[in-house]
Amino acid sequence: MAAEDTRKIGILLFPGVEELDAIGPWEVLSYWTHNYAEDGWEVSCFSVDGKPVNCAKGLTVEAHHSMSSMPALDVLLHPGGQGTRPQLTDEPHLEWVRSQRRSVPLMTSVCTGSLVYAAAGVLRGRPATTHWASLDKLAELDPTIEVRADERFVDDGDVLTAAGVSAGIDMALHLVARLTSAERARQVRRGIQYDPQPPV
């Protein structure tokens, strides 16, 4: 497939992003796109200015692009974390989210990334979820949202929201299945040896 035909997934990085919110989906999606290039997808990370970001628990992660240099996206993934709190009242960021909603076919979020979508009006009248500790905040931000407290992720067509932190891995595997096939998602799950059996 020609490079210009390759479809693009972008993961947003920002100060205070929860590490696994971004890195969990990255592992799933990058394993998929590196090992099955014939599917015609690629994934990259971007930050506001293209510079590295300091995450919630001290990890520093580099971005591939800035917001201004990133390619046009087919899928946007907005992670959560403490860094989303100031975004809820950051009108330039919320307007950027709205602009992505107008141009990106599939908007996805992990954890409290959905709070930002709610604040931007992206989830109006839709079913959605978030981290268990922020479910009330999701409803407060937009009472029209059908908050689904018990679901690992909620697929509402062109908007896909995941619950907290590790739920982003499940959501990303669902995304692989949705964009290709369930068999491909099973191959990726086996490849990254993701088979949760919690010890406690």
Any overview of this molecule?
36% of the residues lie in helices and 20% in strands. It is an alpha/beta fold and 200 residues long. It has a domain at 3-108 and 165-191: Rossmann fold, CATH 3.40.50.880. It has a seven-stranded mixed beta sheet with strand order 5-2-1-6-7-11-10, sandwiched between helices. Strands 3-4 form a two-stranded antiparallel sheet. A two-stranded parallel ribbon has the order 8-9. A hairpin with a 3-residue loop joins strand 10 (153-155) and strand 11. Helix 3 packs across helix 4 (113-120). The radius of gyration is 16 Å and the shape is globular. The termini are far apart. The relative contact order is 0.16. The mean pLDDT is 97.
What are its keywords?
single chain; 200 residues; Rossmann fold; two-stranded antiparallel ribbon; 7 helices; EC 4.2.1.-
**Within the CATH hierarchy, at the fold level, what is the topology of the domain at 3-108 and 165-191?**
Rossmann fold
Second rung of CATH, namely the architecture of the domain at 3-108 and 165-191 = 3-Layer(aba) Sandwich
Low-confidence stretches: none
The SSE string, one letter per element, is EHEEEEEHHEHEHEEEHH
Q: Please estimate the helix content.
A: 25-40%
**Biggest sheet, strands in spatial order?**
5-2-1-6-7-11-10
Overall shape:
globular
CATH class of the domain at 3-108 and 165-191: Alpha Beta
Instruction: Briefly note the structural class of the backbone.
Output: alpha/beta
User: Please, what is the average pLDDT?
Assistant: 97
The DSSP helix count reads: 7
- Considering the protein shown, what is the CATH homologous superfamily of the domain at 3-108 and 165-191? Class I glutamine amidotransferase (GATase) domain
Kindly state the number of beta strands: 11
How much beta, percentage-wise? 15-25%
Q: Tell me the radius of gyration.
A: 16 Å
Distance from first to last alpha carbon = 45 Å
What characterizes the major β-sheet?
Answer: 7 strands, mixed
